[in-house]
Automatic annotation (TrEMBL), chain A:
Family listed: Belongs to the ABC-2 integral membrane protein family.
UniProt keyword Cell membrane, yes or no: yes
Lineage: Bacteria, Bacillati, Actinomycetota, Actinomycetes, Streptosporangiales
Protein name: Transport permease protein
Keyword Hydrolase: no
Transmembrane segments annotated in the record for this chain: 38-55, 67-91, 112-140, 146-167, 174-197, 229-248
Domain annotation ABC transmembrane type-2: ranges: 32-255
InterPro entries: ABC2_TM, ABC2_TM_bact-type, ABC_2_transport, Nod_factor_ABC_transporter
Record keywords, A-Z: Antibiotic resistance, Cell membrane, Membrane, Transmembrane, Transmembrane helix, Transport
Organism of derivation: Microtetraspora fusca
Bilayer disposition of the protein: Multi-pass membrane protein
Length: 255, 315
């Protein structure tokens, strides 16, 4: 009680960049500190990468690690941008965190920007870890890293839109359940480790419209085959991003 | 208590009140929570909003904070519409509960709040002032209820705001924590910060507030300084044998006095407590052959006023 504090009003907002970085830093620390999140963002992708590259569980032409790595990178993007973000945001809404942030100088667009920066920051860590593990197992990547960066950014936008759409409308518990269920379904259907070619011909065109399939196929066409601009997957991801973000911005309830 | 400082001109160069609410209406479905409420909170002063549960305190404060929209009437905060973005930096907010991610450490959250402002208070010093230094590294969910309240208060003032809204800042606090909170509110007032708080504690309003506003059923039922609300009237109370005939005593008392027995054996004389009153009452007791016990002269408390205005039934 001996500290002197000068309460004399001296209000003022910090520059937007400082607010966004501060909030993004806090969100990144929260994601990396949370055990369940870490399981989702790092441990499961790495286990799948090692497991499916080593064990003869799938039949692919060529090296298994070359097939599995692009899928696992796509899965990492989905786990952070969609599952992790949906669950975290759902509980932030429940605990009044979003409401309280609404009373600070950080604007809502600023908050969304901070969330995006945090998600991209975690993805950088995920990509680095997955690449190191894959390279250690003999992965030989091809293609232009620029297309990979583009796919990751578009995938992040599409999955963030989907995640925020769920988190902004459902209760926190329902968001938790829905986000995990969708994660599992998309993991199974989206060609992450099981090739889409194994599904019946009739459902394949539908599966290819899923954001996870688009991201996986795009990553694989560049990294495994050294393909150029992945036009089809980019189109699908842009469509998902535009629709989900537009609907989410209309339906999102902050309280 | 704050009479001495009342002579100092209030800050706020443009002369507008800190908060001005006129004919405010808020409905939730078919329920009218706020029904034509009008109030004004002066700059540089502490205003306490009192009212029973469901009276409309939190709704009013959350409309001023910009969290909810009014269905009617006008609200001005520092002369601006509550949704004006420039208010975010100038107004500090303490929610009734929550607002902090459960896993975030106390010090981490306060530093984050500080980073949103251009000239914040030192978060470590503020934690110290509120007795939270030892808990700086404790996750929010592991703090006690009182510690969470104090952290929330710290978050409301760390940006050095001109105006703070505190929604039940001391609910559930132990006496030490309450005094620490009162100490901060007093410090804010001395520094020229306008404070608007809601509370259920009458002693808190009496001690801290320059102005008390009592609301019930979404309307203001009384407003004024604690002293004007409790009035100049005094009461003389004593205990004696039940069933005394008070008519004779009333005849001996000055005009405008009232005497009643409530409950049995407890007598209350209301009116001008003139020097002769005590002598009159004791003389009458002597003539009745009874001894007056626990004889005392008291002012009405804010609680008496509150219960008179809002009734005693539970809600």
């Amino acid at each position: 009680m001996t500290t002197t504090l000068d309460f004399t009003p001296r209000p003022g907002a910090a520059p937007l960049s400082r607010m966004v970085l501060a909030q993004a830093g806090a969100e990144m620390r929260a994601m990396l500190r949370n055990g369940e999140q870490l399981l989702l963002t790092l441990i499961i992708p790495v286990l799948l990468l090692v497991g499916f590259s080593r064990a003869p569980l799938i039949n692919v032409s060529g090296s298994r690690v070359d097939f599995v790595t692009p899928g696992v990178l796509a899965l990492a993007v989905m786990s952070t941008a969609f599952t992790g973000q949906a669950i975290a945001t759902g509980f932030e809404r429940r605990y009044g965190v979003l409401k309280r942030l609404g009373a600070t100088p950080l604007s809502r667009p600023g908050l969304l920007l901070a969330k995006t920066v945090a998600v991209l920051g975690v993805e950088v860590i995920q990509v680095a870890v997955i690449c190191v593990v894959a390279l250690a197992m003999g992965w030989s990547p091809h293609g232009d890293p620029l297309w990979i960066a583009l796919l990751i950014v578009l995938g992040t936008a599409a999955f963030s839109g989907l995640g925020l759409l769920i988190a902004g409308t459902l209760r926190a518990e329902a968001t938790l359940a829905a986000a995990n269920l969708v994660y599992l379904v998309l993991l199974g259907l989206g060609g992450v480790v099981f090739p889409v070619a194994r599904f019946p011909e009739g459902v394949r065109p539908i599966l290819e419209l899923l954001p996870i399939t688009a991201l996986t196929n795009g990553m694989r066409s560049v990294l495994a085959s050294g393909g150029g601009f992945p036009a089809g997957p980019v189109l699908v991801l842009v469509a998902w991003a535009v629709v989900t973000l537009a609907v989410a911005s209309r339906t999102f309830r902050w309280e | 208590m704050p009479d001495a400082a009342n002579t100092r001109p209030a800050p706020g160069a443009d002369g507008t009140p800190a908060v001005e609410v006129r004919d405010l209406v808020k409905r939730y479905g078919r329920t009218t929570a706020i029904d034509g409420l009008t109030l004004s909170c002066a700059r540089g002063r502490v205003t306490a909003i009192l009212g029973p549960n469901g009276a409309g305190k939190t709704s009013t404060i959350e409309i001023c904070e910009g969290f909810r929209h009014a269905d009617g009437g006008e609200v001005r905060v520092l002369g601006l519409h509550p949704s004006d973005r420039s208010l975010k930096a100038r107004v500090g907010v303490m929610l009734q509960s929550g607002g902090v991610p459960p896993a975030m450490r106390a010090g981490e959250w306060l530093r984050l709040m500080a980073r949103f402002h251009a000239h914040p208070l030192d978060p470590a010093a503020l934690l110290d002032r509120l007795g939270l230094s030892e808990h700086a590294r404790t996750p929010y969910r592991r703090l006690s209820g009182g510690q969470q309240q104090r952290l929330s208060l710290a978050g409301a003032i760390v940006g050095r705001p001109e105006l703070v809204f505190l929604d039940e800042p001391t609910a559930g606090l132990d006496p030490q924590a309450r005094y620490a909170c009162w100490d901060v509110v007093t410090g804010l007032r001395e520094a020229g910060v306008s404070v608007v708080l809601t509370t259920h504690y009458m002693d808190e309003a009496e001690k801290l507030a320059d102005q008390v506003i009592i609301i019930d059923h979404g309307r203001v039922v009384a407003a004024g300084t604690p002293a004007t609300l409790t009035g100049a009237e005094r009461q003389l109370r004593f205990r004696a044998r039940p069933g005394l005939n008070l008519d004779e005593l009333l005849g001996a008392l000055p005009e405008g006095s009232a005497a009643k027995e409530s409950p049995a054996g407890h007598y209350i004389i209301e009116g001008q407590v003139a020097p002769g009153l005590l002598a009159t009452v004791t003389a009458w007791c002597a003539s009745e052959g009874v001894t007056a016990e626990d004889l005392s002269i008291e002012r009405r408390t804010l609680e008496d006023v509150f219960l008179e205005l809002t009734g005693r039934e539970l809600r």
